[in-house]
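From the pipeline queue, job 12 of 40. The input is one protein chain; the requested action is below.

Action: predict structure.
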Amino acid sequence: MKLLFPNGEHEPIELKDGDAVVGTAPECQIMLAVPGIAARHCVLHSHAEQTSVRPLDASSMTVLNGKQVVGEAALKAGDLLLFGRVGCRVVAMEKTPAATVRKPQGGGDDDGRTRVRMALPKFILRGVSGPTFGKTYAVVGAITIGRSSDCDVCIPTDEISRHHAKLQVVPDGVMAEDLGSANGTFVNNQRVHGTVLMKPGDELRLDTVRFMLMSPTMEAHPPAAAAPTPAPAPAVAAGSGAGMLWIVAAIVVVAVVALGVLRYLGKI
């Protein structure tokens, strides 16, 4: 098999027998020094024309055909892989014969190929407490969360039911549904009875395990800080001019009285 990177992040890679580690570390066989890639992101294992992918860093996303890879997943020709935000396509060696490179007329770097842009998941769950703290999970289609190993998001802790909750992507957001869990499913601290629509920024809580629903662009584009409000200019007290006039008049009266007393005493 071979990996093709249609956006040019890496040259095509032939997957030979053995392990090929994907990451930013210099010793990785597939080095992708771009944001969103962990030092040791995942490993591709090939043997006897069979290839699988296994994440090495739970805090970084590896997505296969729109579904986040949690354990080990087999690859086949035609699959789409996302390492963070870097996408590639899995092709069979016999289906990728050498092609004559067509040099574009008039110069430029167009090699004649159509570049396929991989789409990021529309929603992401980020763990903010407990065993999932710092981990991210792609929310694509419908996913189940629970203690059982067959769940899309497996949380092996006794407080979580075997099949605790279900998330379903809908046009307006993500629909959260409790699957009859013992300790309940909560959205923004409100217990879910039936289904509840979630938006990016909402909190999902399963007993003590908490997640935040995010869009991939929330961290890349944090909200701009509000401009500081200028301090108001000190206000001039009403009637301050009239007050000054009264003070001056009082001083004049006192001075006149004092002058009269001094003349009466013969001092002046």
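Job complete. The first strand starts at residue 2 and ends at 4.
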